[in-house]
Design goal:
It is a single chain. This protein is about 50% helix and about 5% strand. It contains 9 helices and 2 strands. Strand 1 and strand 2 form a beta hairpin. Helix 6 packs across helix 8 and helix 6 runs antiparallel to helix 9.
Length: about 220
């Protein structure tokens, strides 16, 4: 009898604020999410939008955690920054895939962004997107600036500007950029850091390989 009640108490205690409907639990959860978002660098405007906390409260939190005021503004307004580099778009695709997976959870919007961003930081060897850029990726798909496509090379889903041409994902583009288009061998690098003009494997010129900013 006592063992069952102890086990039930343990399960209730491990559930945490996220599964508690009491007002104090909800307030605690909201504050925890705001702190986590702020520690990751989310601006006060975004934290306020996701948690419902007053912006003055979030501004004070940002100042206390970072020692400086929160930058003004909320999310970016254009996708130009992403499209300047295939690596950024490859990581934006990763963020989109994670967002799709976590969208199935019953978590709050703030918690979903935290989970997506922390998982992204764990998966990306060299993260290029801060939390503000990561939060903007699903928005670009929602407003139909970007669309999901299937790569004709590897078969994986990726995101790209709506109406663009091409069916090669950003990861495959990066992979092909460092390989000979004739034989597929890795392109060797000069001491200056630039790829050699002639493939050392098949001795053919690589200059006919051309890549646009986006497919």
């Amino acid at each position: 009898m006592s063992g069952n009640s102890g086990r039930g108490a343990s399960q209730a205690g491990s559930a945490g604020p996220a599964s508690c409907d009491a007002e104090l639990c909800i307030q605690t959860r909201v504050l925890q999410e705001a702190i986590c978002l702020t520690r990751h660098g989310a601006r006060a405007g975004l934290v306020s939008q996701l948690t419902g906390l007053e912006k003055t409260v979030v501004n004070r939190l940002y100042l206390q955690l970072h020692g400086r005021p929160s930058p003004s503004g909320q999310l970016p307004f254009a996708d130009t920054w992403y499209l300047r580099h295939d690596g950024r778009m490859a990581q934006a695709t990763l963020v989109w895939q994670l967002s799709q997976r976590f969208a199935k959870s019953r978590s709050t919007p703030a918690r979903r962004l935290i989970d997506v961003y922390e998982c992204y930081l764990w998966l990306a060897a060299e993260p290029l997107l801060d939390i503000m850029r990561a939060a903007f990726v699903p928005h670009l798909v929602t407003v139909q600036e970007w669309e999901e496509r299937t790569c004709g090379q590897c078969g994986l889903a990726y995101v790209a500007p709506r109406g663009g041409v091409g069916t090669t994902c950003w990861g495959c583009r990066l992979y092909r950029r460092h390989r000979c288009r004739h034989c597929g061998a890795p392109l060797t690098v000069r001491p200056t850091g630039r790829h050699r003009d002639i493939c050392t494997a098949c001795q053919r010129s690589r200059h006919r390989q051309s890549f646009r900013t986006w497919p």
